[in-house]
Amino acid sequence: MRLQPEQQVEIWGGMECTINRVNDEYFDQLSYSGHRTREGDIDLFAGLGLKKMRYPVLWEKHQPVKSEPIDWQETESRLLSMRFNDIDIIAGLVHHGSGPAFVNMCDDSFAEGLAQYAGEVAQKFPWINYYTPVNEPLTTARFCGLYGLWYPHQKNDVSFCRILVNECKATILAMAAIRMYNPNAKLVQTDDMGKIHSTPALAYQAVFENERRWLSYDLLCGKVNPEHILWDYLIEQGITTAELEFFTHNACPPDIIGINYYLTSERYIDEGKDDYPLHTHGGNGKQTYADVEVVRVGKVRPDGLKKILKETWMRYQIPIAVTEVHLHCTRDEQMRWLKQTWDTANILRNENVPILAITPWALLGSFGWDRLLTQRSGTYESGVFDLSGGYPRPTILANMIRAYSKGERFDHPAIYSPGWWETACRVVYGVDSFFVQPTPPGKLLIISGTHSSLLSKICGIRGLNYIDTTGSETEPIVDAAIWASIQVNEYMEINSVRQADLIISLNGDDLYRSLNAGLDLFIDGESGNWRTTGNGALHKEIPALLPVHHFLVG
Length: 554
What we know:
Layout: E1 10-14, E2 19-22, E3 25-28, H1 29-33, H2 41-46, E4 52-56, H3 59-62, H4 73-84, E5 88-95, H5 108-124, E6 130-135, H6 137-146, H7 157-181, E7 186-192, E8 195-198, H8 203-212, H9 215-220, H10 231-236, H11 241-249, E9 256-260, E10 266-270, E11 281-283, E12 288-293, H12 305-316, E13 320-325, H13 331-350, E14 355-360, E15 366-367, E16 380-381, E17 385-386, E18 393-394, H14 396-405, E19 443-447, H15 452-461, E20 466-468, E21 482-490, E22 502-505, H16 511-524, E23 528-532, E24 538-540, E25 549-553
Parallel strand pairs: 1-4, 1-14, 4-5, 5-6, 6-7, 7-9, 8-10, 9-13, 13-14, 19-20, 19-21, 21-25, 22-23
Antiparallel strand pairs: 2-3, 10-12, 11-12, 15-16, 17-18, 23-24
Helix pairs in contact: 5-7, 6-7, 12-13, 13-14
Protein name: Family 1 glycosylhydrolase
InterPro entries: GH (IPR017853)
């Protein structure tokens, strides 16, 4: 790649900060993460070298009751800390939310209420130059109005269209209110940008959904006129001509388009639904079909981030940032996903596509997305910082981000293996038709011990090349490709074992999960004695004495 460091894309940051409503209950990610009461987080973020930060100034948090004055104290302290650290703030006002209880996102109270709140934010913080009034309006409209998962729990196209139109109108009115106090304020509009793939029999449905995925941006850009492919669809769902003309008369194109892309963003629909589990079955009123992740289907291949970013640029000719980069997986796979996104963004920038930044998302991890934020319980996904031990522990991703923020190359032996999405193990449905399993560079030396065979299996699954010495001769193995060694022994008495650099002691947990957690710590470069608790949290105990990487389980 020919780009100089100063020409490479920037590194922004963001926290998973959703406040969504389920029935009459609000779920708040920042309360779960402890960020609201932890003063040191901003200093940790600043230490990553971030240029901009997507930061929540959320309506539901600050104005739950319309008649009460807003308490800015907590948020103001953190905003000023970021400003002091030269981090530009992208203020998010609604993040997968439906607004406070005194508004209804299905009528004008949502748009008018958000505009009023946005004006108060801009008046209080006139130096904030970037805003996302409504995060992922299309995605939120689907979850609230089409799938019934979040409030108001509707499952029809009429509600979906009404919510989406109100969100986009709210964005325009909010930016107008903000610009009364800061005429230079810029709109950073985010949405999940996936794609639908299909069998030939469902091509018509794929065409419709692939047009619909652009709808929030098309509305804001004033592109939805009688010639638009979805004009008749919107009219049929009760959106009036006057409502659509509001967007053509008051177009508010984003200054930056924020593309959020996940491995699950691209979907495959197949009328042969019996080949897929029951929970994937659905339909459009004409046909029933399965809806699954493209990455899990052997006979098709995802388009990938590069193609989707180029499609976005060709359609709008507006600068782009990748505003969420996150993978819920093992640490080595998280590194590979971040590197692939970084490389893709810089390749496109080298091809004169104006990709401004990538944004490591969920800096503090996220809670409950495995249940789509419909329940309080759910899996914790670690991010750049891991909260599973009760405090924000920096992972190896923090080192990656620091390097990328400086335009420097980041190196780690585990990063050069292909991600699971690029190998045959990606396939759950059918047989892989595209990928072969390459041999990753570098080797881990697994020293003979209890559970070494399981550790070898896990390394293979994670794409980590290894040498297992179980059953081999006692002479030392000499191999220039070996970058680390690991040993697994039964845990007997923690205080009697002091010779290891990294010890993972199992306490009633699943062995497979504990070994994976140990590998994550190992890749992060951690040392010392670590104990896993019953909920999978990791707690550091006794300092290590010798530089041998050693997992203790039993």
